[in-house]
Amino acid sequence: MSQLGTQLESMLRMMPACTAVKLGQKVRRQVAAPRLLRTPEAARYLGISPWKLRALVYSGEIAIIKQKYWLFSTDDLDKWIAANRERRLM
Predict the structure, then answer these.
(1) Is 42 exposed, middle or buried (0-12, 13-18, 19+ CB in 10 A)?
(2) Secondary structure string (H, E, C) spanning 45-86
(3) How many CB atoms lie within 10 A of CB 43?
(4) What does DSSP assign to residue 33?
(5) Do 35 and 42 contact (CB within 8 A), yes or no?
(6) What are the structural domain ranges in the chain?
(7) What is the pLDDT of residues 39-64, one digit of tens each?
(8) Whole-angstrom Cα distance, residue 25 to residue 88?
(9) What does the pLDDT profile of the chain (90 residues) look like in tens digits?
(10) H or E element, residue 7
(11) Smallest Cα–Cα separation from 40: which of 85, 80, 61, 70?
């Protein structure tokens, strides 16, 4: 293995939030998906506008984590999606 490949692998080992996948001679990083999203990202995740998301928070339908910014857990967002999924009978 070349010196550059060895250095690259050692750098990838030092990144705790990432995993390295070796494919032949290439090394590709896979970054873990974030578990907490800010308002614009959470709205995009749900496919709604940030204003609609804020209205859902104020109505108590979606929980937030109050920090400097509102943070939304992807687990809570997934639960909201499941609870609001339409089931149509034909």
Answers:
(1) buried
(2) HHCCCHHHHHHHHHCCCCCCEECCCEEEEHHHHHHHHHHCCC
(3) 20
(4) P
(5) no
(6) 1-32, 36-83
(7) 999 999 999 999 999 999 999 999 99
(8) 50
(9) 566 556 656 555 555 544 555 555 566 666 667 789 999 999 999 999 999 999 999 999 999 998 889 999 999 999 999 998 877 666
(10) helix 3-13
(11) 70
